[in-house]
User: Fold R3GEF factor from Horornis vulcanius.
Amino acid sequence: SQVSFEEESQNPPAVGHWKPLMPSKGDKEEPESGCQDAGGVHEPQSTEQLNVSRLRSSSVEIREKGSEFLRDELHKAQKELKLKDKECERLSKVREQLEQELEELTASLFEEAHKMVREANTKQAAAEKQLREAWGKIDMLQAEVTALKTLVITSTPSSPNRELHPQLQSPSKAGFRKGHGRNKSTSSAMVSGASQNVAPEPVSREYKEVDSILFAEFQAWKESPTLDKSCSFLDRIYREDVGPCLDFTKRELSELVRVAVEQNTLTIEPVASHTVPVGKVTAEGCGSPK
Assistant:
């Protein structure tokens, strides 16, 4: 509509020019009236030109206002576009930050999960190891209990050994005997005849106390037999059994007898009962080299 209006304003309507007619005979007398008619024709022509100029100025004004309005709208659109670009950039940065935090959180969660799994596996392995050790100890203790029961049943003596239990002896005999009962072989030979007249007592099935430490040392020595005195079992045997048997007055004799027994060079000969009177065997006789 604006373009058509501008075209119309640029193409003003054609106005015919005044063409004077041939004067007639009667026109000569009226020249003033012709001038008046010419002035009347020029007046509408100037009015039309004024209207055209007004239309042109109004169209220019409208065009300027339209262009100004469009420029304002363009500036507004550019501002909105810049704001949207900034918002998009901010949102993209927020998204990147969230993605990075999410990756870090996922990595930390996986690491913590792997750590917990490793700790659980370690604890489970330790618990299984302790369980196996406990079952092994239980089996060993059960075997020891079974062996102890068998040993108690099969090796219970008919009467208690008074030499190993001094509290069962009479005060006079307990004060007279020093060390182990096997120190004086001659006295045992003299009383052998009297002991034959003693009636055997029935086998007692009562429970006998067994040294569990000694039994454990014996089992350890049985698994790997050795004659080294550093072995706990042999050290106990030398200290509690061999030592009291060789507790002579003369230490040299005790050492010689011990070495002879270890080297298997000791000879024991029976002594006739009539050659050695009963009651005259003293510690000096037992301690003599002969």
